[in-house]
UniProtKB/TrEMBL annotation:
The protein, known as: Kinase
Protein EC: 2.7.-.-
Biological process terms in GO annotation: inositol phosphate biosynthetic process
Region span, Disordered: 1-30
PANTHER family: INOSITOL POLYPHOSPHATE KINASE, INOSITOL POLYPHOSPHATE MULTIKINASE
Length: 291
């Protein structure tokens, strides 16, 4: 495999054990992003590799260093494990845990958090580019970037990409989440348990933002990655994408400054998962009564 230098058209050869991850749903895709750089997978170490080619990569590296050198065990439980840097053909990469590694045919969903997903210093062009991605993101506080569903019945994966999810209206969000949970093949009982397990993890992240992340960090254009294997025995929920994390401090002494942009989107996601969860329970109760 070859990596294109961002300053040249000449390809840079990569070791055979490194390639594009097959489960990436959004973000800078190798060979297709503006810089031609993107996330890679080292199949020998089983780790994901994120290139450092500008201030965004440096910012993400600093974030991982700060988190994993801290005593904040709760935040660490939400963030992929960090394994330092590796240099490949003079390009530095951040090494992080692949949260899907070793899971049996997992399904995954990427949700971008926040009504605002551009940096404080973004120009008009960048703001227009971000706001045009979804007409409902300002009201929802998030956008579904895509999801992949593994169907154990036919042993096939279905990809619902960003071009489909961007068209989702707010009233269609619970149905989309239910589809991710396997509405076409999983029983009500399984989907109730999955939604409950995701809600538990979402509320744990919510608690951190409400009680710990005060006058601390502002997460812009960050995502939540939802993962469950095909046997539905557990769920993973990880915060990912930290190239746009900034200090968040109040300008007024004594104020408790929270990341209201992230919390707004997170609370909306919890609302939609709760709405779905309660509707699934109602369907289950109705079906039991009819029997």
């Amino acid at each position: 495999m070859e990596l294109m230098d961002s300053t040249s058209d000449e390809p840079i050869p990569l070791p055979v054990h490194i390639s594009k991850p097959d489960h990436q749903l959004s973000g800078h895709e190798f060979g297709k992003s503006k810089t031609r750089f993107g996330m890679l997978k080292d199949h020998r170490s089983k780790r994901l590799l994120k290139p450092i080619i500008d201030i965004r990569g440096k910012r993400e590296y600093d974030f991982y260093q700060t988190v994993w050198n801290s005593s904040d065990v709760k935040l660490q439980s939400f963030v992929p494990k960090f394994y330092g840097l590796v240099t490949i053909e003079n390009i530095k990469f951040i090494q992080i845990e692949d949260s899907m590694e070793g899971l049996a045919n997992p399904s995954n969903m990427d949700i971008k958090i926040g009504s605002i997903t551009y940096d404080p210093g973004a120009d008009v062009k960048k703001i227009e580019e971000e706001t045009s991605k979804s007409q409902w993101q300002a009201a929802l506080g998030f956008r579904i970037c895509g999801f992949r569903i593994y169907n154990p019945m036919d042993q096939n994966c279905t990809l619902v990409d960003k071009f489909v999810t961007r068209q989702l209206k707010p009233e269609n969000i619970p149905e989309a989440i239910d589809m991710f949970l396997g509405s076409k093949f999983n029983s009500l009982e399984i989907r109730i348990e999955l939604s409950q397990n995701y809600l538990s993890k979402l509320k744990s992240i919510q608690e951190w933002f409400e009680t710990v992340n005060i006058n601390h960090l502002k997460f812009l254009s960050s995502s939540l990655l939802f993962i469950h294997p095909c046997d539905n025995q557990f769920v993973h929920l990880k915060m990912i994408d930290f190239a746009h994390v900034f200090p968040n401090a109040s300008t007024n002494q004594g104020d408790n400054c929270k990341d209201v942009n992230y919390l707004f989107g997170l609370n909306k996601i919890i609302y939609y998962f709760t709405t779905l969860h309660e509707s699934l329970i109602q369907k289950q109760n109705t079906s039991q009564i009819s029997v």
